[in-house]
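Possible regression after last week's pipeline update?

I re-ran a chain I had predicted before the update to compare outputs. Posting the input and the new output here so someone can diff against the archived version. Not blocking, just want to make sure nothing changed silently.
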Amino acid sequence: MSIETKTEAGPAANTTLTTRLADTLRKAIANGQYPPGSKLPSEAQLTETHGVSRTVVREAIAELRADQLVEARQGSGVFVLEGRVQPPAQLSLRNVDHARVSSMIELLELRTAVEVEAAGLAALRRSPAQEEVILERHYAVRLCLEAGRPTSEADLALHLAIAEATNNPRFREFLAMIGRNVIPRAALHNDDSETDQGVYIDLLLREHEEIVQAISSGDEDGAREAMRRHLRGSQGRYRGLLREQRKHV
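New output (post-update):
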């Protein structure tokens, strides 16, 4: 049965469809439909059964792999792990207050330490399929920004796709454990100036474009530097916001 609706189409909808399919497969594993050691249906079968694209299927399987529920075996398919573990809980960080700009800066510094290296490894190791997912996620962020919609879901999906392209599952697990709060950007949109919003959107799209292009071209150093500029730019924007807040204290 299809999980896609008529109102959801295009790259911006893929994140929601991926989550739905991953949840459906998790439930099927939990209720014994796919017992430990069994093989999941093929990519083509899942695409037909659930009415989604191959990209959505790949991303959903990637989520299950990050949760250590399944493993891909070269030339054989995807299998449910024996003695599978539960999906990881959200990483618990002490004294994080998402209403405080200083907490957001701390999270961005943590992200920088991990994601700069992830971008470089993605440039070296990404497969053609992984590169395609990164490009689609980048386009989804662009659509959200240009339509004035919240970008947190699409932005997280882009960064998770880059982490997945390292082909080291620990990078994706780390970002998935931190969760959506790793993309703390809502405060930067609370500005009534259309000019400022336009400048911000252009800047963010340019930063993402530089990261994606470097990864696509296999430029390891360029990908690291582009990710570093992007995350340090976000830190700088938050520090500016923090200074503005302190002026009114």
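Follow-up from reviewer: compared with the archived run. Confidence is low (pLDDT under 50) at residues 4-9, 85-90. Marking as no regression found.
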